[in-house]
Amino acid sequence: MDPNTLFSLSGKVALVTGGATGIGRMAATGLMMAGARVLIASRKGDACVAVAEELNAMDGPGSVEGFAGDVGSEAGIDALVKEVTGRADALHILMNNSGVTWGAPMGQFPHAAWEKVMNVNVAGLFHLTQLLLPMLIKSSTADDPARVVNVGSVMGDAPLGDGAYSYAASKAAVLHMTKIMAKELAGHHVTVNALAPGPFVSKMTAFATADEGMRAKVGEDVPLGRVGRDEDIAGCLQFLCGKGGSYITGAVLPVSGGIQVMSGPNLFRAALEG
């Protein structure tokens, strides 16, 4: 089979929320390089416009458009949907990437950290998908389903709090909701899958990945020995959204270097060595 056909997104229209930075930008780059017309939106519209110009300067086969969009409120989501429907007649790919986090030690974690994080990471993701569903269904066929890709986290799969309690819980909700949506939307020829990333370089992880030395230290705690790279995310999107991923729904791709299967020491090693 021709790999160019399996992973080509020529003629596809995609929306990536939070697409100006981090994992969203990595995904937008991968989609654009596979030939898609990519819309990127975040609260900082100017940043999205600037990033779109940078990505278009790469002269890939696709294109990128940037504008403001906020999934943190119902009014913001309504405005984002209006912007998307005004720019495109079809939507083949939706990547729900926008997210926020909050960190504080147990005993000092504020009540407000739950409402804000769950509102964006869970309610915002669900409501945006719900409102864009007619566009996705209109663009789907049995042979070529529309695609929804939700961004969870390895923290939603493994019991890793690290002071980000509401974030970890919200990402567990994203992974579970992905499976519910996958079941309910399969009949409409819409696939719904999720990524569960480990440590990648982004604004959200800048406190631990700001320079090469810090990234190396973080990588030492990852089974595969490094933090994630741009191509790790880009490749996932090209796979899930291309022809090669058309028969996959309800999956969670653990893009975490093996963190999701880490466990404690061998239970009997001490006795055997003693």
What report would you give on this structure?
The chain is of the alpha/beta class and 274 residues long. The protein has a single domain, classed as NAD(P)-binding Rossmann-like Domain (Rossmann fold, 3-Layer(aba) Sandwich), CATH 3.40.50.720. 44% of the residues lie in helices and 13% in strands. The chain contains 10 helices and 7 strands. It has helices at residues 3-6, 22-33, 45-56, 74-87, 112-139, 165-185, 206-209, 212-220, 230-241, 269-273, and strands at 13-17, 37-42, 63-68, 93-96, 146-151, 190-195, 252-253. A 7-stranded parallel β-sheet has the order 3-2-1-4-5-6-7, with helices on both faces. Helix 4 packs parallel to helix 5 (112-139) and helix 5 packs parallel to helix 6 (165-185). The longest helix has 28 residues, at 112-139. The mean pLDDT is 93.
Number of discrete helical segments: 10
Largest sheet: 7 strands, parallel
Q: What is the molecular shape?
A: globular
Average pLDDT works out at: 93
What is the first-to-last residue Cα distance? 54 Å
Sheet with the most strands: spatial strand order: 3-2-1-4-5-6-7
Count of domains: 1
Question: What is the secondary structure topology, with strand pairs?
Answer:
Layout: H1 3-6, E1 13-17, H2 22-33, E2 37-42, H3 45-56, E3 63-68, H4 74-87, E4 93-96, H5 112-139, E5 146-151, H6 165-185, E6 190-195, H7 206-209, H8 212-220, H9 230-241, E7 252-253, H10 269-273
Parallel strand pairs: 1-2, 1-4, 2-3, 4-5, 5-6, 6-7
Helix pairs in contact: 2-9, 4-5, 5-6
